[in-house]
Every structure is written in C-alpha cells, then in structure tokens.
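Continued from yesterday's entry.
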Amino acid sequence: MTHVFGPVPSRRLGYSLGVDIVPRKTCTLDCVYCQVGPTIEKTIERKQWVDPDHAFDDLVRALSRGEQIDYITFSGSGEPTLNTSLGVLLRKIKQISSIPVAVLTNGTLLYLPDVRRDLRGADLVVPSLDAVTPKVFDRLNCPHAELDVAKIIEGIKTFRKEFQGSLWLEVMIVKGVNDNRQELERIATVAQSIRPDKIQINSVSRPAALHGIEPASPEVFRLALKLFGKPAELIDEFNKHSISDSLEETGQRILQLVKRRPCSIAQIRQSLGITEAEIEKRILNMLCEGKIQEIRHEGKKFYKGL
C-alpha cells in the first residue's frame, strides 16, 4: 500500500500531496464528525507505525511526476504525530524539495517535548481546537482516557511559542454539540490566547463517523466569526483550476480520492475537472467491481473507497 495520495484538492491548502504515516484510523481521538470513520486503534503510544523509508520512496516517486503541488501534507487516515519517524521524514523532505510542508494534527500530543521537536521541520502546523471544556471535549472528540483537554491546550500554547513556522488553528463546529454561544465564547477566548496566524472555522461537509452529525446553522457561523475576531475565516470549498490527466490516471485519482474521504460526484468533478458523465461511468464500474460503496449524507449521494 502506498503512503502517498494525491495531489488532492484541499479547502485550505490548494493542491495537497498527502503523506499518510499511520494505519487507517489510528488516532488519539474518535471524533464524532470524522470523515474517515470511527477510530480503530485509539492510542497515545508513539512508535514507528509504518516503514519511513517506504513512505519516503513513495513521496519521491510522486514528486517525480511533476504535477502541481501547493503543499506536501502529513494527514490522511489518523494522527500523524503518533509516528516517531515524523521528524526524520520532515528533514528528509526538506533536503529534496522546496515545496512547503504542512502537518494536520489534532494537537493532542503537543504537550510532549519530542512531538514539538519533530514538528520544527514543518512550514505549517494546523492543530484542532473544537472544545475547551471536558464535557464538550469528551462528547465531541471522544479522547483516549489519558488525555486531558487543559493539558492539550497548554501543549498548543507552548508549541506556538517555540515554533518558527505558521500555525493555523482549526475549529470544527457541530450542530447541537459546540455551537451554543457560551461554548463558542470559551473556545474563542482560548484560541485568541494561543495567537495563531489564522483561526479556521470548519463545518461538516461529508458523511461523519457518527450518524446524524450535522453542520451548524449559518447564524452560528456568523456569530463564530464575530467572536473569534480578525484571524478567523470560514473554510471555503476548493475552487482552483482542475488537474488534467489521462483517462486511466483519472480513474485512479477518483479511487484515491474516495478511499481517503467520501466525495459526491460534484466534488469529484470539481477536484479532477472531468464531466459528470465520465465520473458516473467510472463510479458505476467501481461499484460493480466492489471497489467503492455508495452512502448518503443529508439526502446526497457520496462514494467511499473500500
């Protein structure tokens, strides 16, 4: 199995070449909104989950294709800071490429000095902060038993002071969980004390791990923007020009895309720049071959790789 996927469209990072260095859904949390699905291995143990040489070789091959890449991004199936090879991989990437490197993390392990040290090699780190009170944190993020939200917040603050690169804070707002004014005010206060370069307010846009998880109302997002202040922004859908590809490569891209996260036909079209008719034909073939499955979210069809 390859540890590199994409480049895929990211609402935040443009064309992102993903690097996945933990097994599928190995994470410190089991967030109810996760688009990858429920956590299989909930742990805070750091170890070399995958072969770093294999991951690096996959990345070198992907870079050799010469495609448009805005960021090399550590993300994917789980929490990348669980891998003790993260720092080594970041340093090796810098030796062969000038493309900026981002790490998308839930931020739960930033209280550990070795995690903060490993992340020094990144250009951009994006930790999450969906809740600041234990009750909401437990309900929304379903953490490992040994994690404490206060310690996590202090870890993010410490990392911010030490880190020389850019730090964007992501806040996922979920209807009926953390969308009331009191909780948003608490999150905003903590977020502002961290002093991130950006606060990115996110919404549930794909099928979540837990059935019934829905995005908050537009009124809530307007309130959040007001409370979070100047560094805050809503994450828009990807709107860059499409990538052109051969028919065979496009089929593989569709499969890569829906293996990592469920997508609608419209999202696939927007990502890859091919017609709905072509997408529907390929989707039908992959359904018949058992490579993907159709799921529904808020009355819309999404396709998920198996």
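--- second protein ---
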Amino acid sequence: MVPMQVLKQFFNDIRRQRLRSALTMFGIFWGTCSIILLFAFGTGIKEAQLKSQKGMGENIAIVWPGITSKEYKGYPRGRRIIPTEDDVRLIKQRAQSVYRISPEFSKWNVTMKYGRNETIRNVVGVWPEFGDMRNLIPDYGSRFLNMYDLKEKRRVMFIGNRLKDDLFGEKDAVGKIVLLNGVPFTVIGVMKEKQQDSSYNGRDERKAFIPASTFNTMYSRRYLNDFVMQCYPDGSMEQAKKEVYQILGAKYRFDPNDTEALSIWDTTRGFAFLRAFFNAFQAFLVGIGVATLITGGIGVSNIMNVVLEERTKEIGIKMALGARKSTILMQFILETLLITGVGGLLGYLFASGIIAIIPMFGLEDYIGTPTVNVWGSILAIILLGIVGLVAGIFPARRAANLQPVQALKLF
C-alpha cells in the first residue's frame, strides 16, 4: 500500500504547487537532456573528425628522402638518402612490422584530355596496395589497380571523383580512353567520394593513379618521391619505423638512430592526439551536463524541505497513530525519486527527439551523426539515482526524526 500512498501524495503535491513542481522538474529535465545531448554530440563530432582524418589512411606513415645528420663508420654527415623502388621491395621482404607498403612516384602538370574536355593534374605511380592503405575505395562498377596491371605495365588509370567530374561530367568514366600527354590510358576505376582533411601531395579526389611500372616506362624515374607504409592494426608504427631505419641504414651506411636520414610523417601520432583531445572535450561537455543535473538536484532538495514544512502536522499525526520512522523516511525518498524520475524521463525523451531529427539537416560533415549512446544513457540513469537519493535523504531524515508531540504543537 505504501507505493500507492506515495503516488497519491505525489500527485496531490504537484496539484497544490504546480509552478514550483514544474520548475523543479525542469531542472532535472534540463540536466538529463544536457547529459544525453552533449554526450551524443560530443561522440558525433569526435567520430566525424576521426573519419575525416582516416580519409588519407589509417595506421600509415609517409617516408620522404632525407639528409644524414651524423657521421657513421667513416661516412660524413650531410649525405642525401633517396629511396628507390628496390628499397621498398627490400623493406617488404624483411620488415616484420610492416603490413603494407607502396612506392609513390609523382608527376605534376600532366595534360589529361577526353573529347573536348582537358585539364592539368597530378599523376601518381603506385602499387596495388596503395589503394587499401590510402582508403581509395572504388565506386560501383569500378576497381583499383591490381598485380596484373603492375606486372604487364598496362596503361590503365584510377581517377579521383573530382577529376572524373572535370573530364566526364555526368557520363560514366569506366572503360573510356583518356590521353595523358597524348598517351592513351583506359579508366578502370573512379574513387568513391570520401572526406579527407589531411594530405601531403594534394587531395586524392583530383589525382590519377597508374601502375608504378607503367609510370617508370613513361618517365624513366629511378628515385621515389616518397613511399607509404602501414603497420598491422594491432602493431606498432614505432617498431615499423625502427625496422625501416635499420634496413635502409645497413644498405646506405647511415646510423639507424639518425632520424633525419629519412623524413617520416607518422599519422598514428595525430590520431592518438585527436582521440585524446576529443575524449577530453567530450568529458568537458558531459561535465557541464552533470553540473546542470546537480543544480536541478539542489532544487529538488529545496522543494522537499518545503513539502516537509507543509506536512509537519500530517507527519505528526501519522507517527502518533503508529507509523514507523522507516515508513516516513521511505515515503519522502520515494517522492524525491519520483520527481527526479519523471523529470529525467521527459528530458531523455526530449533529447532523443532532437537527436532523431538532426540527420534531416544534412550536417554530418560537420557534427557527425549524433546517437543516443548506451553509456551516456547509463551515466544519466546512475546520476539521476544518486541525485534523487542525495536530494531526498536529508529532508527524509528530518521528517523521520520529528517527535509527534513537537510536530503537532507547530500547528
């Protein structure tokens, strides 16, 4: 019967003090709503930024030529180290921590022509593994370069989506012949549009990719512009870089600890920084929501103290008729939990509604896709319980410790 009495008393209190109850519930409503929304938007923004960074590739490092900064076994410092395609093959054979690797030859200002459309773009010579490392995902009905293209030195090309639009417009590009400085190449694939916030040699959407063997046949390049390598998903890029320095150091006679002999951009460090930054940012946002919820809890505690003052005589009568302290205590705590529960439920539903309609505005590129996070919901429920319990325990103890005679004398 106690729960029914609590519910009845709860609704009676709300009817008597509609404005005060509404304002108190609003504090809990807004605190819960803030936690859910800030957690959802923080996660969405974090995922959107990481996705943009992954547009260039995940777990990769780009290696450029360098100049030795140390003397080593009689060799002077200041020697230029420029890797070749054979060096990339050597690393692929010997490095245990390198998952994928590809040389990268680059030729700027190449004239590309299809029909009457003509443009000047960058042409890159690579191995087939390059596409997987750099997230060059073929669009429907197309493909990236394969080993047969490389071995047979085929005149085929994979193009970025913006380059496709420049040359072909709305027409299908796969199977068409494009002239590269007058040399015919067959388009075998078009890159699926992707987000890419970082680059080192221009955006992939504007490039053309051809087999490295075909590139060397056309331009007779011995030295690489750079090479790209990828460590295993659960591996260490630091170990992979160490192996590269050791392998090439042994070949070119430079100190393996000379980090200036090769210039390496380790993108995994950037990912680690971004994750740490956005985790801290998300924690800050959730902290704001928690502070708002605590403020609402103070309001709940205040209203329960007011309720205690209004119902002192009622409590005295109940205790004179034999009501136990535990009954009075439990009644006040349950009423407090009901106030926080109703406010929290309304806040949760309101936040869920906002999160559901946000994708309709097409802001995924900026704020990602906010979702009602399971952990955020669990956090909100736990905090609601703690706030409700703490807000109700003090007025409940005061009510339970009232002496019947004193309570009746107050009125």
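The radius of gyration is 34 Å. The longest strand covers residues 98-114. Will compare against the first tomorrow.
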